[in-house]
Amino acid sequence: MDHDAHRIKERRVAAKDETTSDMAAKAALKAIEQAKISPQEIDLLLVATATPDMIFPATACFVQKKIGAKMPPASMFGACAGISVRDLRSRSNSLLRGPMTQRW
């Protein structure tokens, strides 16, 4: 697979007892720490995956709870990570309009 076509730099493999939301929460907490912000300062939590924890509720809901955030979570489902990346790019204008909490 050509990872460059989708700008995917690396892939992760979950442990047998690890869920997609576990992996996403670890990554989110690392990003929050590096950005020196609190989870409450996040405007949008978007989880794009082809391997959700379950169909409903969305994986983003589990990540939101695990990181202690309050923003509206959203999940995107795609047949592969590349489709999710392309979908995210096509939705980028709505993400750039400002904090989601101001639009609810």
Verbal overview:
This protein has four helices and two strands, in the order H-E-H-E-H-H. It has 104 residues and is an alpha+beta fold. A two-stranded parallel ribbon has the order 1-2. Helix 2 (59-67) links the parallel strand 1 (45-49) and strand 2 (73-77). Helix 1 packs across helix 2 (59-67).
Keywords:
104 residues, 2 strands
Give the termini separation: 40 Å
**What is the helical fraction, as a range of percent?**
25-40%
Radius of gyration: 14 Å
Return the structural class. alpha+beta
Question: What's the average pLDDT?
Answer: 80
Strand order of the largest sheet: 1-2
Q: If helices are DSSP runs of H or I spanning 4 or more residues, what is the number of helices?
A: 4
Q: What is the fold's blueprint, element by element?
A:
Blueprint: H1 20-35, E1 45-49, H2 59-67, E2 73-77, H3 81-90, H4 92-96
Parallel strand pairs: 1-2
Helix pairs in contact: 1-2
Compose a concise summary of this entry.
38% of the residues lie in helices and 10% in strands.
